[in-house]
Predict the 3D structure of the following.
Amino acid sequence: MTIEKRIEVFTQLGRFLNLFAKARNGIPDVAPEEEKLHRSLWEKIENAKHHNGWFTEENVLFSFQQWANVLSKENLTRWVSQYDITSSQNPKTVAIIMAGNIPLVGFHDFLSVLISGNKVLVKQSSNDNLFLPILVDFLILKAAGFEELIEFTDGKLENFDAVIATGSNNTARYFEYYFSQKPHIIRKNRVSTAVLNGSETEEELKLLGKDIFRYFGLGCRNVSKLYVPENYDFDQFFKSIFDWKDLINHSKYANNYDYNKAVYLMSDFKILDNGFVLLKEDESLHSPIGVIFYEYYSDKDKLKSQIEARSDQLQCVVSKGFVENSIPFGKTQQPKLWDYADGVDVMEFLIKS
C-alpha cells in the first residue's frame, strides 16, 4: 500500500469521525457499511459509561472531534513530508502497549506505525478497548490491505521488532527491563503546568479551565500545577473556571474531591475551595483528581531553571510565552500530528529502528 493510499484512508477516517462527533446520537446519511459502524460506535459509547465511568459521552466525542480535526489530507501530508518514508516489502512489526487514561490515548502511536508503512501489534488497556477496533474496521473497509497490517492481542507480546509502551513510573521500570533487547520508546508519568503572571484576562483563564478539567484532569496534557506570582489573587481564577462546576455532579470525580478535601482538612493543610476543586500550595507537580497544586514565584529566571530541571516530568507548559514552546491557553488537548508525547519523535524512531 502506497503512502498516498494510506493518507487517503486516514483522511476518510477523519471525515467519518467528524460526521460521527457532529451527529450527537443521530446517524448521518452514509453508505450502509458506514452506517453499521456508526451504530456500533454509539453502542460502545453507551457501554463505556459503565465499563469506565470516566469515559463520558462528552469526553469521548471531544476526543473523536479532535482526531477528526487533525486527520486531514493537508495535515497528514505536511506531517509525513518531513520524513523519508519508503514502502518496504518487509515492514517491521511494532508492538504498542497503550495507556487507558483518556479515550483513544494511544491512537497517535497506532497512526504513526501504520502511516510509516509498518505493521502494528496492539495491546490495549482494559480501560480503553472499545473504540479502536471499530476504527480499524473502518480502515479495512476502505482498504482491505490494512487487515494484514493490524493485530490485537490480550496476551504476551510475541514476534515483534520494536515496541512503544506507555505506563506508570513503576511499569516503565518493568518495560525497560523486559524490552531492553528491542528498539523501544518507554513513556512514564507526565503532567502539565501553567505559569501565570497576573495579567491574564477572564477569557484566557476560561481557556485554562479546559486545560485543567477536560477528561477530568486525567491526561498527561492536563494542567495539574499552577505557578503564580507572589500575592496572586485567585478570585478571578475561580470566577473564570466556574463553567466547570458541574464536574462535582459526576460521582467518581466527586468521590475524589470529597476524599482529598477530608484528608487535607484532617491534616490541617491550608486549602482554597470553590465547591468543585481544591487549590493547595504544594511543590509537587502531580496533583490528585479534584485538586490543583500551586506555587508562588518571585524570580522569573529561577522559575525557568526550575521548570527546565523538571522537564522530564512535564508534558506541556501553558503560558504567555514564559518558556520556549509554551502552549497557548486552552490548547493542551488539541495537539498537532507533529506534537510528540514526551518530545520523542516517533516517526524518526520508526524509520531508524
Remarks:
- The chain has twelve helices and eleven strands.
- The domain at 3-189 is CATH 3.40.605.10 (Aldehyde Dehydrogenase; Chain A, domain 1).
- The longest strand covers residues 223-229.
